[in-house]
Amino acid sequence: MSDQPQAPVAPVQAFEPPYYLAVFTSVKTEDQTGYRETNARMEELVQQIPGYLGMDHAQTPGGLSVTVGYFRDADALTEWRTNTEHRTAQRRGRTDWYESYTLHVAKVERSYAFNRTGAAEALAAD
Prior knowledge:
There is one protein chain. This protein is α+β, with helices and mostly antiparallel strands. The chain has a single domain, classed as Alpha-Beta Plaits (2-Layer Sandwich). Helices cover 28% and strands 36% of the residues. The chain has three helices and six strands, in the order E-H-E-E-H-H-E-E-E. Helix 1 runs antiparallel to helix 3.
């Protein structure tokens, strides 16, 4: 057990629609050399993009990894997709770190949130 305090676990908040999601689902290879450092750099980079809203990540015990990136608009998502360092990391992912992956991009038209300590809130585009 670690003596390090754990960050609170909570999903990214609901935002006023419309906004965009990039859902990246992957299965990693056994050799993950260099992945952790590159992933930390990608998280640092994406946070610098105007219109980046946040990220959720989960992994199953069987090794399926799901990362959802939230972006205010298509321009922010395009800026992330075409970032030079991100493109380099994508190529390395295909050659070294991923056995398989899928990417789904969606426009959010409705967004809900619930927090036991607060009230449920629904956000919908007009």
